[in-house]
Amino acid sequence: MKQPTIAFIGTGNMARAILEGLLSDGYPAACIWATRRQLDLLSDLAEQGVNTTSDNAAAVAAADVVVISVKPQMMRETLEALQPALQSRQPLLVSVAAGIDAAALERWGGGTLAVIRSMPNTPSLLKRGACGLFANANVSSEQKNLAEQIMGAVGITLWCEQETGIDQVIAVSGSGPAYFFLMMEKMIEAGVALGMAPDSARELTLQTALGAAEMAKQTGVEPAELRRRVTSPGGTTEQAILSFERDQLGSTVEKAMTACRDRAVEMTALLCKE
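Above: the chain's sequence. Below: its structure in token form.
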């Protein structure tokens, strides 16, 4: 059975990661289209058999699924230019842009479109991503399964029952890698301040972060319990944890994530106004 044809409109880093994830999973290159203004940047994909073009409408005209990954500020202009092709083809439209709600995507595409909002994160570039998904009422079960296949090529997927869930996903996993990068950055700086060589502080910090994440993932034990297991009463770890608690780390994290969520809501109101 022929696989559905997928067109990537705007093949930047994230779209390329998803596309290459599909290829590595065995998805037929002949069933994939990729567009970009600078067509020479897609030459390696063309060599693998992917259909490449700078003509967005031509790609949409061939597609069962359109993954649109242009900048949020360019989304309206791009979709309105594609209205004839979208209305003629009626593909599943999957957006990877923050701040653009499903109603605006459908409206700018001419209406009556099946639309899925997705919110992947940067570890998708390493096939370790986390992606939230929300489908409008026009999306079929088959189309939802196809979206899972596409986004699942670079990590895990999670469906949001309400569209507000996408803003929550942004606060937890969409922006989440930056929180961990900041923690790593500060641990490296603290290690150096304690007298450790910068290279040693970096290597130990990154390996510790990787090991802790793998331990939580593979054991299935709640992080709070894993923390308790390594925090001996009166020991060294306990002193660090107590210091975090005195400085209200939990409240700080909650405030930061709330600010992130609130900004996502503000962006939607700004970008999607009539």
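The first helix runs from residue 13 to 24.
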